[in-house]
Amino acid sequence: MSGSQNYINHVALVLDASSSMSALSRKVVEVADQQIAYLARRSQELDQETRVTVYVFSSKVECVIYDKDVLRMPSLKQLYRAGGMTALLAATLKSQRELAQTAQLYGDHSFLTFVLTDGQENVSHRLPDMPSTDPRALVAAVTEMIETQQDNWTLAVLVPDQMGKREAMNCGFPKDNVAVWDATSTQGLEEAGQVIQQATEKFMIGRTKGIRGSRTVFSTGAEAVNQETIKAAGLTPVDPSTYRLIDVARAGAIRDCVIDSGHTYRTGGAFYQLSKTEKVQARKQIAVLEKKTDRIYTGPEARALLGLPSEEVRVKPDHNDGYTIFVQSTSVNRKLVPNTRLLLMP
């Protein structure tokens, strides 16, 4: 990308407005408005132009805002009304097809869509502008559409349960672009908003590293790491002569383990292997180990690669055959888990 070309993000919210969302409708507006305010702030901080599109769907699909500058967005208060059935597939198809007609001249354009639903598809096949009245053909149309999207498209969905997750994956949504939310409470919707915000942060930071789209938008852990994402994030291996990997034979405090292995303990110089879900603070450095070579990658890009925002966040250790995540420790008493490894950095 030449220096004169700017980053232009086209972010779409595709919101379920079926009858069952009535009790949550005020919260939907609040969460959507918060997401738009966050997008406006981060767009300015990262110098990325962001344009927002909003669709609402029930028994029909309606675009209520199209590709509008995020700094000029109104509240959704007057635009969101719940009532009707759930045209989930129609909303997915219509939003992506219409956004695909957006001009992509003069800039590095990227499309990010979040679909939020509290139920299963039940009416799309009856809508007049759909390609078929056969529900199976609609699923096939969505699958084909997702498969053929360019690398600068990211399509994600939040569903209410595991059945919804299976259905979304059957429609071609990548596994890590499907999240389950608690559709029974305002608290659940608040948490869904946080998940969307975290995924958006990962997307926008990734943009600065040259990543144009993502099939792991909801993963914040080891499963987001592979050769392609490491390369795209611009990570380079650390000089092997500058770090040490130590096998942890028994449980104990991190400082004792370092000293027992014949090294000097320095605060911030020891990284423990992520072996359970835990909170990682904004200032903590991350290191990624390639298992087959014992190569280490670190730096601010490593946090971005894992989708970690610039605030405290819970991170899962997710199973990954090729890579291991290490987190910087600033405590002398951090308890180490046996049969893991400890990384000492200069």
N-to-C order of helices and strands = EHEEHEHEHEHHEEHEEEEHEEEE
**In terms of per-residue confidence, which ranges show pLDDT below 50 for 5 or more consecutive residues?**
none
Reported for the largest beta sheet, the result is:
6 strands, mixed
> Beta-strand percentage?
25-35%
- Shape estimate: elongated
Q: What is the C-alpha radius of gyration, as a whole number of Å?
A: 22 Å
Kindly list the characteristics that best describe this protein:
single chain; 346 residues; alpha/beta; Rossmann fold; 2 domains; six-stranded mixed sheet; six-stranded antiparallel sheet; 8 helices; 28% helix; elongated
Helix/strand layout:
Blueprint: E1 7-16, H1 25-46, E2 49-57, E3 61-69, H2 88-99, E4 108-116, H3 135-147, E5 153-159, H4 162-170, E6 178-180, H5 186-208, H6 227-232, E7 244-248, E8 252-253, H7 254-260, E9 270-273, E10 278-280, E11 286-290, E12 295-298, H8 300-305, E13 313-315, E14 323-329, E15 335-336, E16 340-344
Parallel strand pairs: 1-2, 1-4, 4-5, 5-6
Antiparallel strand pairs: 2-3, 7-16, 8-15, 9-14, 9-16, 10-13, 11-12, 11-14
Helix pairs in contact: 1-5, 2-3
Task: Give a short synopsis of this structure.
This protein has helices at residues 25-46, 88-99, 135-147, 162-170, 186-208, 227-232, 254-260, 300-305; strands spanning 7-16, 49-57, 61-69, 108-116, 153-159, 178-180, 244-248, 252-253, 270-273, 278-280, 286-290, 295-298, 313-315, 323-329, 335-336, 340-344.
